[in-house]
Amino acid sequence: MNKYRSHNCNELRKKDIGKKISLAGWINKKRDHGNLLFIDIRDNYGITQCIIDKANKNFSLLEKTQLETVIKVDGKVLDRTKDTINTDIDTGEIEVSIESFEVLGTCNELPMPVFSDQEYSEEIRLKYRFLDLRRKKIHENIILRSKVISFIRNEMNRLGFLEFQTPILTSSSPEGARDFLVPSRLNPGKFYALPQAPQQFKQLIMVSGFDKYFQIAPCFRDEDARADRSPGEFYQLDLEMSFVEQEDVFKVVETLLVNTFERFSNKKLMFNEFPKITYSDAILKYGTDKPDLRNPLVISDITEIFDRDDVSFEIFKKLVKSGSKVRCIVTKNTKDKPRSFFDNIDRWAKEQGASGLAYFTIEKDKVISARGPVGKFFSNDALEEIMNITKAEIGDSIFLACNKESEVQKITSQARDKIAQDLNLIDENTFAFCWIVDYPMFEKDEVTKKIKFSHNPFSMPQGSIKDINFDKPLDILAYQYDIVCNGIELSSGAIRNHMPELMYKLFSIAGYDKKQVDEKFSGMINALSYGAPPHGGIAPGIDRIVMLLANEKNIREVTMFPMNQNAQDLMMKAPSEVNQNQLDELKLIIKEKK
RNA sequence: GGGGGUGUAGCUCAGUUGGUUAGAGCGAUCGCCUGUCACGCGAUAGGUCGAGGGUUCGAGUCCCUUCACUCCCGCCA
Predict the structure, then answer these.
(1) What is the ipTM of this complex?
(2) What is the pTM for the complete model shown?
(3) Beta carbon of A62 within 7 Å of strand B?
């Protein structure tokens, strides 16, 4: 028999009444009646109410024992009378009469209560993460995470994928995020980099002939945090497949995600076969490449309307002449909404730094007309044309913004979210997945005006090497795709470029000559010259998947030991200074701070 | 690097137009209480009002600087 317990704290039931048992766990809560003491003991599995009265010699000692002390109790399982049954806990039909107890782990006065629904500051939660993790909600989130990862492993195995580990100490690469660097003692002055993703390795695994690979891979990027982005490190379900086209990857990911989300959430899936939206369509219709498809609102371009003579909205007309675009959002049947609804949205847009959102509602008495502050500027014919373009109907309202393309795209995208919220159009009980496809291979850097890779430099461009017009690099599309759920980007992937000749060509457009490519990507480019199979893959973010399943807005709620926004671990006090010997061995000198 | 929010007891918070000795709940300590499950009742301790400077007869409250936490922009192939 186990030294500490005969049962866990969620095990005892009516059938155990009369048994002599022992339990071990934390004192979750005490209810002290002076001559009678109730003690709830908690472990990973649940809570059991224990009871002791003054007749027992241990009474006064137990009465004074702090909450969260770890104790072992020996006692007998008792029935509870009908009116004292607690239906909130699984063990609520019984209780344990304590005969003796033993303190296994003492507890100081707590810096934060464990048994409480209160919210606490991040600072205290992170500093005492081991206490925070005892609390029900986050404890369950972490267990969920474990189960999701385990399920995904099984599914991947079932789908014929092999799990491999790849190096954590690797080389710095010029593209992408900032690297975390690790100095090399044996090679003074040189540094390893922690992998931003096992990108090159997984391609090398394909070149090595393993056909289907996956890994729950740690990824390290030295970039600033967000609510849905851990600083420093996060996990991806990294996967790669040989002899596949885009559709083959989609099929695997759809199967995996549908199974995972159906298994771990009660929410509905809006699509079992995820819709595919081209990047350019997404940007136009939603103003972003990570649209929330639960939101039915779409953005339309009605710039051409403002060239018409029967439209007299002079401010917009003038802006359009100088190259601005007009985009609009139609809200269905909002004719009876109060003026305040419209004005609130206009005011909100101004708060976002835009020049506001013009609006009108389409009405029909004998002829079609527009009601609202700017309605008078549109003729009957112009309104019909707008209705034609936007599919708006009588009784609908139209919100318009006019600005440079990038600005109008930004504000209409935000407005789409804001209006949907105000109209309560988003079904919180749904997951809406979609693929964003046909990403451009290159984009122009706004600052330097140079052409650079818009996503992954190893992606395969669409079209054969003979057909691609390399003189218009911004027109080249890639077999590059993202998967998005409820407006959250879960992952990027691509069919890879496995042809060295084409690779050099594309890198040259982004400003790397052959020598640089050979140097910086030696592992990859060399391997591709020795018989590389066509291959492709993707890497869904594990943390974000668990966030969606746990219904959490912050990634720290699904991360066991997260760092704070400044990439510090308040519990372990990382990062920290190191001693002079360590620096000497590494041949490093710390510059004085300015 | 930039913008917003927050910072008052161990924890969660209140604190009026600037005005006496800065309050409450939980927790802690002590006392009472044999059926609670957020047990109840009474008492006690506990404060550099994040820090520094300024305005004022007087600052938790107004102003400036700064720090911490957080959200967002930049950044994240």
Answers:
(1) 0.92
(2) 0.94
(3) no
